[in-house]
Design brief:
Layout lengths: L3 H20 L19 H6 L9 H9 L6 H16 L10 H10 L7 H20 L7 H12 L3 H9 L3 H19 L12 H22 L4 H10 L4 H4 L10
Helix pairs in contact: 1-4, 1-6, 3-4, 5-7, 6-7, 9-10, 9-11, 10-11
Length: 254
């Protein structure tokens, strides 16, 4: 039987990818754009960025967004973004493992001040990809890294947590358990579980900690999460001596 949540999320993601293709159709790198051949690529490869719609091989696609040194990095990113978005949602692609870095590249490109139709297409893509990540049965789907893509690209954490909280689906609960397991040690040290491009790291830690300790326990208990994961989550919500004198603190001694 088809899971309607997954079906709707896939339709939304496909529509968002089509929206990106429409919004950035005809985008090209500036005629005088250049980069160092020794670490970026050949003149023939550079010429491809100045022709709209030509598909790039995966290695050239990665170099186009990843290598610095462009005169107008935003224009280069707009040129490759529809193809890059299509690759980054495919767990079999090379781009899939670079989701966190791609979020930083989007932030540096100031996509939110691009023309309104382009900015709206990027925003909808991020929300659609996040929603699909939370419900997809694909075992390779890894919610923490997609969340980092969205947070780094947008500079905000709360909207993505709100989307997660509003989604009542067993896969979303399993993704939550994966995230607590992944983030637990960092949050117990009051550290953000990923490197961030943005300045308000402490604020993000506070938002993430408050959200997890308020929202996650009931959902994790409902899916039969192990006791050690639940205790780690509880410890994240404690501060000072209450945390490190707790019997379940990893280094606790009587």
């Amino acid at each position: 039987m088809t899971d309607m949540h997954v079906h709707r999320a896939r339709l939304r993601l496909d529509a968002a990818l089509e929206g990106l293709a429409d919004a950035f159709r005809g985008a090209v790198a500036p005629p005088d754009e250049h980069n160092c051949e020794c670490h970026w690529g050949s003149a023939e490869e550079l010429a491809l960025l100045k022709v709209p719609g030509v598909m790039l091989d995966p290695d050239l696609l990665r170099r186009s967004w990843h290598i610095p040194g462009w005169g107008d990095p935003g224009a280069v990113l707009r040129r490759v973004l529809p193809q890059l978005a299509g690759a980054v949602v495919d767990s079999r692609s090379e781009s899939y493992r670079y989701r966190d870095e791609i979020g930083v590249v989007l932030a540096r490109a100031d996509w939110q001040v691009w023309p309104p139709e382009q900015a709206a297409a990027v925003r909808e893509f991020l929300h659609a990809f996040w929603a699909h990540t939370l419900v997809t049965p694909d075992p390779a789907a890894y919610a923490p890294r997609t969340l980092v893509l969205c947070v780094e690209a947008s500079g905000e954490l709360s909207p993505w947590l709100d989307d997660w909280e509003a989604l009542d689906h067993p896969a979303a609960d399993r993704r939550l358990a994966e995230a607590v397991d992944e983030w637990g040690d960092d949050l117990l040290a009051d550290e953000l579980p990923w490197w961030t491009w943005h300045d308000d790291k402490d604020g993000m830690v506070a938002v993430l900690t408050a959200w997890l300790t308020r929202h996650a326990p009931a959902r994790l208990r409902a899916i039969g999460a192990p006791d050690d994961l639940l205790h780690r989550l509880r410890l994240i919500g404690l501060t000072g001596p209450a945390r490190w004198t707790d019997p379940h603190w990893p280094n606790h001694t009587d």
